[in-house]
Design brief:
Layout (H helix, E strand, L loop, with lengths): L4 H15 L3 H22 L1 E6 L2 E12 L3 E3 L5 E3 L2 H6 L5 E12 L2 E13 L14 H6 L11 E3 L2 E3 L13 E5 L6 E10 L2 E9 L5 E4 L7 E2 H7 L5 H8 L3 H6 L1 H6 L6 H8 L1
Antiparallel strand pairs: 1-2, 2-5, 3-4, 5-6, 7-8, 9-10, 10-11, 11-12, 12-13
Length: about 270
C-alpha cells in the first residue's frame, strides 16, 4: 500500500481533531490540581509553632480548589469568566482552601482556611468554560471554538512553554563512534524531591569503566567507587554486577586499572 501526501495530511487532521493542540497542557494541569497538590500537602503533613509558654501542633488535611471568582471593591464575591478577566485586566483564578487541624491543649479544632489563589487554566476541568455547550458559551460572549491551555494574568494571556527533558531515574545507553573505537556510555538523571544529578558511566575503548559524579572533578574508576561505598572485595563487586561469565570477563580491565590507584590524581592518570 502506497501512502500519498494527502493520506499523511488526513492522518494529521484526524489527530488534531481527536487530541487537539493543547491536550498535554490540560492533562498536566488537571493532574496537578487533582493529585499533585494533595501529595505535596501530605508530604509536608504539618508544622509546629512554638511561642512563649505554649506549643501549637498544626496538621494539614485536604486541600480544595474552588470556582474561579472575583472580589469586587465593595467586597462582594461572584463567578468570573475568561472574557471578563481579559476586559477588566483581572487574573482568572480560584481560591485555595486548606483544612487545618489545630491541637491546642489536647483539643483538636478543624478549620478550612483560604491560603491563596491559584490561576486557572482556560478549558481545564476547573474552568467555567468546560462542559458548556456552544450555545451557552456564545450567550456569555465566549468563543465556542476556544481550545484553552493558557492562563489569564492581569488581563494578559500567559502560556507555559513546554520543555523536553530526559526521563528521570532511567538508565539511558548511547554509543560514541567519533573515535577509532566505540565508547559506550550509560547515564541516569537521579532525581528525588529537591535534588537532581546526572550520573554517567563510561566503558572506555581499553575496557575500563569510570563513573562521572557531580562535584568530583575527574571520573572515578568503577571499582574504586564500589569500594568507597563499602564493597570490600573484587568478588563482592563482581557478584553485585552480574553472575553472567561473559559480563564478568568485561570487568577484568576495570579491576586491573584499579589495583594501584590510591589518590584522585591516580584516577585522573588512568582515565584521562
Amino acid at each position: 500500500m502506497h501512502l500519498t501526501d494527502k493520506d499523511y495530511w488526513e492522518v494529521m487532521k484526524a489527530f488534531f481533531a481527536e487530541e487537539g493542540l493543547v491536550k498535554q497542557h490540560l492533562g498536566s494541569y488537571n493532574d496537578f490540581v487533582q493529585n499533585t497538590l494533595q501529595r505535596i500537602i501530605d508530604e509536608i503533613r504539618g508544622i509546629t509553632i512554638e511561642v512563649p509558654d505554649r506549643t501549637y501542633d498544626i496538621k494539614f488535611g485536604t486541600i480544595e480548589v474552588r470556582e474561579p471568582r472575583v472580589v469586587e471593591v465593595d467586597g462582594t464575591v461572584r463567578s468570573v469568566y475568561p472574557r471578563e478577566a481579559r476586559i477588566r485586566n483581572l487574573t482568572y483564578a480560584a481560591p485555595l482552601y486548606l483544612d487545618i487541624i489545630l491541637n491546642e491543649g489536647g483539643r483538636e479544632k478543624l478549620e478550612s482556611v483560604n491560603i491563596g489563589d491559584l490561576p486557572i487554566m482556560v478549558k481545564s476541568d476547573l474552568c467555567l468554560l468546560s462542559n458548556r455547550t456552544p450555545e451557552e458559551l456564545i450567550r456569555r460572549g465566549e468563543d465556542p471554538d476556544e481550545v484553552g491551555g493558557y492562563f489569564i494574568v492581569n488581563g494578559s494571556e500567559r502560556v507555559i512553554v513546554s520543555l523536553e527533558d530526559l526521563a528521570p531515574n532511567r538508565v539511558l545507553i548511547e554509543v560514541d563512534n567519533r573515535g577509532s573505537k566505540p565508547v559506550y556510555k550509560g547515564k541516569v538523571f537521579s532525581t528525588t524531591v529537591g535534588f537532581r544529578a546526572r550520573i554517567e558511566m563510561t566503558l572506555k575503548s581499553k575496557g575500563g569503566m569510570a563513573v562521572s559524579i557531580p562535584g568530583v572533578p575527574v571520573p572515578v574508576p568503577f571499582v574504586i567507587l564500589m569500594r568507597t561505598l563499602g564493597v570490600e572485595t573484587d568478588r563482592e563487586v563482581a557478584d553485585m554486577v552480574s553472575l553472567n561469565d561473559e559480563i564478568l570477563n568485561e570487568l577484568e580491565p576495570s579491576f586491573k586499572a584499579a589495583v594501584n590507584i590510591q589518590t584522585v590524581e591516580g584516577c585522573h592518570t588512568v582515565h584521562r
